[in-house]
Amino acid sequence: MANLHGKLEAEVELKSPADQFFKFWRSETHKLPTVSSNNVQGINLHEGDWDQHGAIKIWNYTVDGKSEVFKEKVEFDDDNLSITLQGVEGHVYDGYKVYKPVCKVVPKEKGSVAKLSIEYEKYKESDPNPDKYMAVFIETTKDIDVHVSSA
């Protein structure tokens, strides 16, 4: 039987200190359409507050030149500087049963590292891995770093 579950992983070196990069994800994601306008066109709060664990946000973003929508419930792990976007609905579910992006920020002596992962489950073996979504995740992470490190 085919294994339809997978996990993509990437690391992005950051100039930003880990706590400042995490703070952006924790309480300033409303700035993403300005910070990473090529990738994110809008984020609207659907339920809760911007910095609230369990808040639900609706993202309007572009992947491979196409506009898509993603509704997620955010989980913050303040102790481990980790953010998990629990997908609720959106275009990504046309190709995946499960889609869960995670960003864990690891401090370094100078700067930090963003460890990105996307856990997923495909509907069928011939469906592609979510590489195009990881590319957007990486680009957005780099854009946030430029914004935070130059602030």
From TrEMBL:
Record-linked InterPro entries: Bet_v_I/MLP, MLP-like, START-like_dom_sf
One of the GO biological process terms: defense response
Every Bet v I/Major latex protein domain range: 3-151
Domain of life: Eukaryota
Family assignment from sequence similarity: Belongs to the MLP family.
Protein name: Bet v I/Major latex protein domain-containing protein
Source organism of the structure: Corymbia citriodora subsp. variegata
